[in-house]
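Late entry, written up from scratch paper. The run itself happened at the end of the previous shift, but nothing got recorded in the book at the time, so transcribing now.
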Amino acid sequence: MSQTSQSSGIEHPSSNLEYNPKLVEVSRFLQEAWPRPTWKYTLELLDAHLNLPSQDSPLSLAYRYANEISGFLSYLPRTVSYRGRVMPVVFGKWWCTSKKCPLFGIGGRLHKELLSAAKQRGYAGLFLFTHADTQADRANRLTFQRLQQSVLHVSTFSEMLGMPNMVRRRLNSEGLRPAKSYSSSMSKDCLELLTSMGQRLDIAQVWALEQIDYLFMGRCLTRTWVYERGGRVLGFLNVFLRTLVGDKTSLCGCLEHVAFGDMTEKQIADFVASMMADSYWDSVALICAPATGCFDQRLFQRFGFYESPSKYNVYYVPFDSRFDGTKVSSFYLDVF
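Output as recorded:
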């Protein structure tokens, strides 16, 4: 690799790049650099995504200027299935540059470095998730054009949003058994549900059994409820708690992993009602659930959820021919 990289007429020495910077610095940088409203990028949030067991180490890269982080980007290794074909990919996360830095092209420099590293590791490609019709969305496309790298639009999706108090009023939990929390003994049933759900979707993440405990209870800020009958798990809802910082600070429960298997609408309604009766939701202001085909949106609307007007784009940067970036209508990916 050359010692310098030219972008927009500005040299970016390789010595300014730092792999795997300290997360405490990254957390502080992201919270200062991103305009509000934005998620609060705590150490717990970053750690929960970066330290997934039984996975290749993430590719995290910072750009330093005047001895301070002025840009950051992470490629998270994941495994996905596309039409029965399992392949290793990376998810681009937390691409951010500081407006205080006078240099241009830092974002492109970070992507160029990590693209090279990801290709050397043998990944099939890169998934990116952005707010549609925003500066970040346009910057992603422009950056890859400048790098002469194809970037393909795979899908657009929205979110289902719900306020706990409203959902509680719609769903009567009286007489229902309290929702049961996940335990390690349920990992095989939950993995089977995820696998079955993935088989009916166009693209889906693939997990190993040893990762389920971490996803459902090992991460900080996570909680999982299960619907169990006859000693068997029929469905589950996994929530990752995030803090939204804006004019005021609010807690948001993001539904990251959702599967209802062969549950009836009545069973799903009872399960959600019993889950929402948990005191966990007393301090939560909003529930977010990506509408990507993992659950019936119409059913959630009857529960008091509504579709957000905001849209999100999914892009794919192919490194080889294992996935050609064909548009898809349903998927299960880590979009948060």
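The chain is about 30% helix and 35% strand.
(Scratch paper discarded after transcription.)
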